[in-house]
Amino acid sequence: MNIEFKNLMIKLLLLSLIFHLPFNLFAQKPVINVDFNKEIAPMKPVWSWFGYDEPNYTYMKDGKKLLSQLAAIGENPVYVRTHSLLVTGDGIPDLKWGSTNAYTEDVNGNPIYNFKIIDKIFDSYVSRGMKPLVQIGFMPEALSTHPQPYKHHWKPGDPYKDIITGWAYPPKDYNKWRSLIYEWAKHSIERYGKKEVESWYWEVWNEPNGDYWKGTQEEFFKLYDYAADGLKQALPTAKIGGPNIAGTRGKIAMEWLNNFIEHCTNGTNYATGEKGAPLEAILFHAKGSPKLVDGFVKMNMAPQLNDIYTGFKIAASYPNTKNLPVIIGESDPEGCAACGMATNPENAYRNGTAYSSYTAAVFARKYMLADLTKVNFLGAVSWSFEFENQPWFFGFRDLATNGVEKPVLNVFRMFGLMNGMRVAVQANRMYDLSEMLKSSVSGEQSDIGAIATKSEKSAAIMTWNYHDNDKKSDTETLTLTLNNLPSKKAVMSIFLIDSKNSNSYEVWKAMGSPNKPTKTQIATLKKSGKLKCVQKSTVEIIDGKVSLPVDLERQAVALVKLDW
Question: SUPFAM superfamilies of this UniProt entry (predicted)?
């Protein structure tokens, strides 16, 4: 750095302090170059996986509406994972609670199977072309070794441990547990057909290394073995995996994942006495860690990315798992979907564009981590659905509120417009993967990056202006240059999510944040929740090249799509 330039930078810094200007006013202008001749890998729809705690929301009014909206995104089937499919109860949902009453016993202890509520749930998926990621859990009351208390009465603000009741314990009879899974799988084949059920993935329990499992590690392996044996007796070609651990980067979690793989590879099967257990997929969880700082939310995707990196590396380290499908069973900015911003102010990001821009930026890095570790990355479950009959924009981690889509859902709609091959992107303001793993986007400048795809007749570029600090900042103009396009002319569509576009939350706030919007207001909110195309035009492609400016607010996401 020469002395003149150094002195200039010092003067600019002093000016920014004197006049209270942001120093990034003088930051490097964002430039992104996309080379459509440099292919990386197929654009797998790893984003098309969703999940939630409350299974009975599935077939309720707004639940069915959201399922239809998700099913309409992209060309590939959407997979759905939900808790509590075997929990005993009346089928009435509550926060972090659901039930199906699939298993009870008569006075003599004989099993009674009733799959009517599970059928309503799975019918809702299959009729829309969706696939269940079937969670085998939790423990029916009649099978639990510690059945009472059973139903919890947790509400936001209560200690999280209060949800852990009789459903979290091992079975008192493992043979009955195996028979339950056998009968469930057999019933599913009879209802949906063998070919359909073969396309599902099954997994046992949820976060057994945490509060969700009140048994030992070996008891969990036994639970898994008996469940897998029951499933395979009904359908030998069924696909099952696990263990869906929490906090994957932690020492204890890594021990769980390694020990689980070792058990499935070389251990003695508790159900059959043979060597090993079925394992057709590796599953684990990954979460970020936002916090409230000086009145604003500060996101942090480093913990989530390190969970993913750890899980990918472990899966890649074993000969028998390195090619297995890897599914991130829950992949989110933090851990409790039902903890609204009233009780957890650090979750205030959920209604607005911080959630949508975070989602765009973090999925780009998930693809990078899969490329780096060479794993068979199949999907990442966004643990985000909807909460029926709850206050408007309460700050739950959901995709829609009272049937109105939130900004984050529009990012998934953007992903649905991307297909074919991922291609090379060079972005001078996109944080390196190593820096993201270390400290997320905590520097002075925001993360302005992109992910791009090409297919035979189209190209798509998603770009964002993301920062961990959910604070307003100046709009920046990105210079986006597309190289080696295989056409001379194309129809260009630009879709945008920011404070004025594809954003029902800002419209709701402008209405005065009504607790009971009128019919007219609801119609306006529904319209504002759709993904908005802000520009559509025909562009000339000269020597395979197009260059255009894209204005991005802090936390904005844009998709530029070319069709020819």
Answer: (Trans)glycosidases, Glycosyl hydrolase domain
